[in-house]
Amino acid sequence: MINPMQQVVIATRKRDSEAVIAALQDAGVLHLKPITGGPLSTGSLAGADAQSRREDERLLARAESTLAELGSYRPAPASLPAAEGWADLIEQAAQPTAALARQRQDLQADLDAESAYGDAVRALGRMAGSLDRSQRVSLLPFVLQATDNSGELDAALKAELADRYVLATETVGANRVGLIATRRSERDLARAALGKVRLGELRLPGRFDGLPLGEAAAEMDRVARTGTARLGELNAERDRLAQAHAPALYAIRDALKDRVAIHDVRAVSARGKYSLALQGYVPEDRLAALKGALDRFGSAVSYDLHPVDDHHDDLVPVELKNNSYVKPFQTVMGLMTPPKYGTFDPTWVVALFFPLFFGIIMADIGYGLLFLWFGMWLLGKAKRNEGWDLSFFGAYVPPATLRDLGFVTNVMAAWTILWGFLTGEFFGTFLEHFGIFYINPELLNSLWGWTGIRYPEEAEAHKTLFHLFPILFPRLETGYFSNVALVFALCFGILQVLWGWAIRIQQGLRHKDPVHTWEGIALFGGVGALILMAFATKAGKDFSAFTNFSDPRVLLMYVGFAAFVVGWLRVIKHYPLLPIELLSQGGAVVSYARIFAVGLVSAILAKLCTDLGWSLYENIGFLGIIIGILLGLVLHFLVLALTLIGHVLQPLRLHMVEFLNPTGFNADSSPRYNPLRRLSPAQGQVK
């Protein structure tokens, strides 16, 4: 659910404003809303306030850049030094850190250059000999790829220079390096020859550019011998500086952030010569914290609380407040913008149906156990307060997020295992081959005979040894069960699409919005009528059903179409193409067929992987068992790796598009609740 908010307006004397804002930081519950216009000053600070802000921001930037150069993780909390010494402490750390950073950067550049060019430069140095110091001879180094023809270069040089040059090449790794020696006055002619055969002069990076080849080779040799050890020394020096300065720097950095935040609050407030006013929002369940922070100032602060007008205020922040089962799924909803305040929070719907849809699609005990292991691994890292470093994606997942993801994964795994029992799948048909799962025609006919299907009499029941668990939802029996599985999936579409338009109607009535109300009525009735028409006419096979008024489905169908026509006429000015939208919404219901289709493809692929391994056992014997197990595991891993993202995204898409579009969720949003909070401890105290 969306946590209810109260709007608050606070007025205080200007001389007390810093203490009041600091108290609000301590309370950590007020989401600020900028004040614009009016008789008091708003917007950017001026005068002494602006100068103070610039100084604090300068020190903050200096502290943050120094911490970045130190590259240290946050150390244990330290006492906050006195404010008058912050600038000196920052500079004491910043100057040696900046000098050390430059040394490390230069050395790393040398190491990178040696790694990329070292072998080539050493070969060129040997070829050059003492010619690279000659006043009359000019040397042009170049690199030949494996496909380049040195004969073409030789011909181009001869055309430009006749016999006034020397060309030498040497193989280095997969390529060749070459050197052209010619008179200094004819250097440009040699370059032109290189250009004609699409080659260029080799230019070395950084400080090596311009050095004679012999000196460059000697210098790269020195870097290769001593560079790594020297980099280790510089890193050790950086660690020493971090240990000495990082605790105080982090404390000062946090305190400066709090001071800059005070300046930011003043900038979004209304300011007079002697007073300051600010406004914002507070969750109703945290009003006590706000009152406790402000009441201690007595008459120096005046504030007013009143309910939020969720019909007209577009800047009311949203905080989701759900029970312990639903709350982890807020991480999934974090992929979307928050819902508009005063509307519908779909998190609990996603928490209920997303793992269910995933379980129906996967429906494999073996895969479910793998997901369960992965979920427990995530929870284990979170319990140890460890994050997950995904540096190859440029991301880091904190422990709190891992805890939520682990819970969501375990719920998905539970549904996958449950549906695996219903479909009789364990890494495809592995357990079915042993008879642990088996087809019972009589049981299937008694369970699903009401749908009109019968297990084909000519089909031979699976004969196995054990017959432990009968398969209750045989989706792999495509010859007779596909229609049942398809309609079963479409039932979720019928439920969610109609539910979405019902929410649209409810929200329209709540907000006294006749346009959205009638739009919802029109499409709820129209979609319902299309669904009833499909059932009454047996998917278009019996159009005589349109006149069968003894069938209640037909009567309800006409009522639905009438509701669509009336609703459309009421909103035709706003939505003239609503009939096209009706057809689109009918397609949205059909989109839920992907639960069946994607799941069936997953099951068929898993079956093929297992059946291939099983056939090796049947044809080769004991050796076939080993090969079959190894091959089956590899194929199952590849299938799961290639299809898993789609199996996750398909249920998400059904919720984010087919279900949430009718509710209006994707059309409007509100800012996230982001309260003013203190980062630093009180003066002289440790966090």
TrEMBL record:
Subcellular location: Membrane
GO molecular function: ATPase binding; proton-transporting ATPase activity, rotational mechanism
Organism taxonomic ancestry: Bacteria, Thermotogati, Deinococcota, Deinococci, Deinococcales
Family: Belongs to the V-ATPase 116 kDa subunit family.
Gene Ontology annotations for the cellular component aspect, listed alphabetically: proton-transporting V-type ATPase, V0 domain; vacuolar proton-transporting V-type ATPase complex
Keywords: Ion transport, Membrane, Transmembrane, Transmembrane helix, Transport
Protein known as: V/A-type H+-transporting ATPase subunit I
Domain V-type ATP synthase subunit I N-terminal: start-end pairs: 116-204
Residue ranges crossing the lipid bilayer per the database entry: 348-379, 480-503, 515-535, 555-572, 592-614, 620-646
PANTHER family: V-TYPE PROTON ATPASE SUBUNIT A (PTHR11629:SF63), VACUOLAR PROTON ATPASES (PTHR11629)
Gene Ontology biological process: vacuolar acidification
Membrane topology: Multi-pass membrane protein
